[in-house]
Every structure is written in C-alpha cells, then in structure tokens.
Amino acid sequence: MRLVGLLAVSLLGTLTLGASWARADVLITVDKATQRMSVSVDGQSRYAWSVSTGKAGYETPVGTFGPSRLVKDHASKEWDNSPMPHSIFFTHRGHAIHGSNATRTLGRTASHGCVRLAPANAAKLFALVRSEGMRNTRIVIRGDEPRKSSARTVKRDRPKVRQAERSPVGARYSGHQPQRTEAPRAAATYGYASPLNTQAIFDWR
Predict the structure, then answer these.
(1) Whole-model pTM?
(2) Between β-strands 96-99 and 115-117, what pairing exists: parallel, antiparallel or unpaired?
(3) Residue extents of the structural domains in the chain
(4) 34-52 burial, b for 16+ CB within 10 Å, e for fewer?
(5) CA-CA distance, 181 to 179, in Å (whole number)?
(6) CATH number of the domain at 24-142, please?
(7) Interval 174-186: pLDDT, tens
(8) For residue 32, how far is the Cα from the chain centroid?
C-alpha cells in the first residue's frame, strides 16, 4: 500500500513537472526609439505592434519587469477616469500596458508613462499573459523616446539694399541720390560744321 502511494506521488510530480515544462515563456519587448512592441512565446515571434510610450515629462521607465496584476476593465483615477482596458501593470507607480482609443497617436509618444496599444491588440496580449501566467512573462522596455527635431529657421535671400552715399558735408548719410550734372551744351554752329570763331575774324581785320 505504501509502495502504491509512493508511485502515485511520483507520477503526480512527473505530471506537474511536465506541465511546468509545457508552459511557454512570454517575452514582451518595447522599443521606445521605434515605438514598437514585439511579443515572442518560447522564443518564437508571435506579435509586432505599434505603441505609444510616455511623452516629454512622462517618460516610460526602462528596464526588465514582471506583471504585478491584470485588470480587464480599469479607469485611471489620476487622469479623469480615462479608460485603460486590458491593463497589465508592471510597476508599483501604476505603469501599465493597456488598450487605448487614441489609435491615431500610435507610433509616437503620447501617454503619461504607460504603454498604449490598440484595443484589439491589448485584448490579445492580456489573454496571452493570463493563459501563460504572470510568472512566466517578462516585460523589457528599452531605448529612449524619439525627440522632435527643433525647427530650423530658414533664411531667405533678401534683395540687397544699397547704403546711402556719404554726404561730403559732415559725417551724416544722405538718403538722396546725387544729382546728375548736365553735359555742357554745344555752341551754336550757325550752319557751319564748327562753331563761329570770332577771334579769327578780329585777326583778319
């Protein structure tokens, strides 16, 4: 009878160990530089999605984390009861991976520190972590949020403005252009090719 009990315990232990071996390890990787999430199960790629991490002043923490709790329907008390469906919390400060209806901002920073997903993708990830177990799930967040390039001022070519010429009197500048001097008028020719030479007339006398 005792032998039968030992065999039963041994068989139960083997089944339990085999069940633990059969469990998959879920790895959730968030790259803040590219605003992308990749999910692998037992080393095999399963999902790849766009995310939104924390905007300036609300940066998402970097490091390796484990899920602390799962909440299917959650509302943020800190941010006007904003809906956070299928939340996977991973820090004691309240950071979570969750669904968001702000799908237009996915692919760039927009959150207050959480990792946002499209609602359908958040539901898939939530179901995966719940089925495989929080103990078998790791969350790795790396990189830095992309910074917006500062706007550069483009200097356009402007027409060159000629400076006013210096006035000959004093050190002031005159904004008026110098007056043009008229060319001397030619003397009357009286029908001849050259002007009348009166001196030659006097010499002839």
Answers:
(1) 0.61
(2) parallel
(3) 24-142
(4) ebbbbbbbeeeebeebbbb
(5) 6
(6) 2.40.440.10
(7) 455 555 555 555 5
(8) 10
